[in-house]
């Protein structure tokens, strides 16, 4: 992906400013770490990537915090372009035999041409996530202010702007309530009669503005089209202003407040989307109802309900990696200096920011977190703001289970249920197969056919990878009612591959064909291949987890035996001539055009899977390490995030931390801490949080592995509230690079083994029981 001239200038400017900054502070600070869970700045945002994000899972806003004029860029999570559609290509079954024949004859480029001509979706593109537009507040001609501070408090999900102008201190507080489903802003001053502003909308959408009263303004419109057809969604953003004192009037397409003591601004938004094939909703009725319920209540009442709901999720996990005086600097300055100063609290802030973002963009009943999470300023978002399911959507949810946010996976589970419906149609129409399939992208309308081009889209594994998240939700929560609910999805995904795997004539193994190793070109000038390593690894997990689910539920014994038998016929992991884990079933790695490719698809077996581990498969782990070394550390934001998790799984604390510092630097983190792909993609944020969790605690194979990749940059610290598979909660404290104590709480009385280095201690906790362990004579012992 190329970087624009503007991005290059931004990066170089940020680096050159370092020379102008005051000397770096390295001294230890005594301020509490909890004080640091704020992003704060001494100036308003000029760029979107400097603005601060708020969200309740469904509604999103980017707050700029201007003095003369403020902007709140708005999103609603169902505002995508287009209308319900099914792009599955009926030419698929006739084209498949010839495509496979060309692949097995080594005519990969010819196969790609045939796929582009006869096996891609129609249309070949999906729809884009879209902005509502901006809510603007104009205060006056002057931006001169003193004592300016703009902040986002992660513990409160509250944006605050304060400054002093003409002897008056002004404050603006904003949040988006997950309880009342509205954005709320309070404007106040320390002198009566000083709140005056004009409020209006700006939007790139085809939309109209209506003034319904001196208190209420409404933006309404229709979403953008797709593939030459009009959009099917109606949307509305309704704003009410309630001032205390002063006067309220109207201007041209704007509301006017003059001389008030304070004012509250409420914003509700909705579309006509009800389901991926139902656009019959009434956005006017929805916003009117939400406004009627919220706008008669006090700020304190609304905020208390909001804070209670946010805290119930956010406060489950605490983390402290230590603190230096660098943490006293504004956030943008800390990011700019991150490569040159000791700032462990910045990593802790980034960790909790990832959790904050997931809470803000994925809640039960909402759409899942997309490529931009929830926040997008454009009609045509980067890469459409879709759900890219060859890594990016999955990475969004890596932190959910281990950082105690399991409820937030509900939108992802629902997405899988929905694409199993459209994916069953795609499987039947394009492959003549049972079950269901999804390729490398989906969107609001749950399209599942291959898109973009054969080079990128010929990958039938997207739905199969998402099934790992379905299984993980069970593995952490051990809810058999949930497992029964999602078992048909696991079974349907497995059925598709039982029907479509074919025998490789050269090796006799069963392989996927056609497929790719996302999105990497091999030695023959294309990505098209058969049976790449990642496909085989994903299928081993899918088949194993489907079989385990059937066993737990005591059902489908015959089907269970069938998938396990097919699992044994897949191409095994292989070590190539350079000592690397092969990316393809043939040893092509060292002849690939891009040895530093951003995707590390063949390392799925190391993470997020645990088919490859340093203890169980040391030779394969060494080969995975060699592959990582060959790939290199610097890449796009999300790719660096994946590398952090992979190196942590290898137990390489220093290497992992060095890559984390790349992610936290100004080339890969914007001033507002959004991941700089560039441009912004949110997956890097979530990958970073997941990777830091993996550095501190890992759980797989009935083991809870403590401090597996602790770096010397964090010699003392703690993390509490982490979740391990089997229903365990883990609180860790360490000092001088050594475990001080770990407290384990068991929700279900499952068996597990504590692992610290080479020391292993079986756990035998009953349901609801907790125990604390420490070190005696270098070994783990129970202390309480």
From TrEMBL:
Domain Alpha fucosidase A-like C-terminal: 698-757
Keyword Hydrolase: yes
Record-annotated Glycosyl hydrolase family 95 N-terminal domain positions: 39-275
Domain of life: Bacteria
Keywords per UniProt: Hydrolase, Signal
PROSITE patterns the UniProt entry points to: TAT
Keyword set includes Iron-sulfur: no
Family matches, as InterPro entries: 6-hairpin_glycosidase_sf, 6hp_glycosidase-like_sf, AFCA-like_C, Alpha-L-fucosidase, GH95_cat, GH95_N_dom, TAT_signal
Signal sequence segment: 1-27
GO molecular function: hydrolase activity
Residues of the Glycosyl hydrolase family 95 catalytic domain: 298-696
Entry protein name: Glycoside hydrolase family 95 protein
Protein source organism: Asticcacaulis currens
